[in-house]
Write a structure and sequence with these properties.
Elements lengths: L12 E4 L4 E7 L7 E9 L4 E5 L4 E9 L1 E6 L2 E6 L3 E4 L5 E5 L5 E9 L1
Antiparallel strand pairs: 1-2, 2-3, 3-10, 4-9, 5-8, 5-10, 6-7, 6-9
């Protein structure tokens, strides 16, 4: 087998962003060149991943479930299921769940 299979039950949910949300690490650094990691993210109702940025890497966010807002220094942008955001390296941003249900995302962080 030349491909790699990872079983869902091996992924452990852990705190993310100081406990404001959670994540499962799906792909860790050095498993694929230039990818810092890929996580399955969870954000509880009416909470947020507070202002943060990723040094020297871009981040892609795919919204799997939910609705909310993304902020950067220029403004606020709504999101809903199926939306994709690209956060360039070194750009501060915040992700807020404004709904009454937990939101779910896939995050991929890629080195420049």
């Amino acid at each position: 087998m030349k491909i790699i299979k990872k079983l869902n039950e091996t992924f452990v949910r852990e705190d993310a962003h100081g406990g404001s949300g959670g994540r499962k690490l799906l792909l860790s650094e050095n498993e694929i060149n230039n990818v810092q990691g890929m996580t399955y993210g969870f954000l509880p109702a009416n909470s947020k991943f507070a202002w943060h940025m990723h040094e020297k890497m871009n981040e892609v966010m795919i919204v799997l479930k939910g609705q909310g807002n993304v902020r950067d220094e220029d403004g606020m942008y709504t999101y809903s299921t199926g939306d994709v955001f690209i956060f360039p390296k070194d750009i501060f941003h915040e992700i807020e769940n404004v709904s009454s249900e937990e939101n779910e995302y896939i995050f991929v962080r890629v080195y420049e």
